[in-house]
Write the structure tokens for this entry.
Amino acid sequence: MKFKYFKDPDNFSYKMKSEEKCSVCNAVGIWFDAGGFYGSGELNCICDRCLINGELEELEKFTNDVYMGNEEQIREITYRTPTLPTWQDIEWPFLNGDYCIFEKFASKEDYKNKQEFIESILPSDKDLVDFDSLWSALPDKKIKNIKDGNNNTTVYLFSSNGKKVSTWDAN
Ligand SMILES: [Zn+2]
């Protein structure tokens, strides 16, 4: 099961700690934690299939708060894409007419070198960042999953047409 804008939900999304029933269809598994979703009403968790099928739209719950792009792109990110695992609400990067694909939490190993990292920083972020301190805040070793990445500064690696795009936030 694939999400258009979220590469590796098993390792980099907010999932429940143990098997539970999907709040929509009752299927049992380790599903997305819906506790942090936007919108009204109670929802404990939702399975991959229900999320991809857009079940949230009728429940008036949504996973991400975005406004760039056309209606279909917005609905895809809002209702059918796992929540971006960020400390603060950062905007889902939008480049070249489409949303970027969230790949993972980044480490130094995800870039050929510092120069490639600098070039990957989201254009709208470029004025805001001290490249040296952000580079040194990057972990050396690959981050395998969301639990691995519990640092004060997190760099999020996206892709746009196969090119790396990076943004970050701090705890
Ligand atoms: Zn379900």
Notes: The CA atoms of residues 58 and 139 lie 40 Å apart. Residues 22, 24-25, 27, 46-47, 49-50 surround zinc ion (CB under 6 Å).
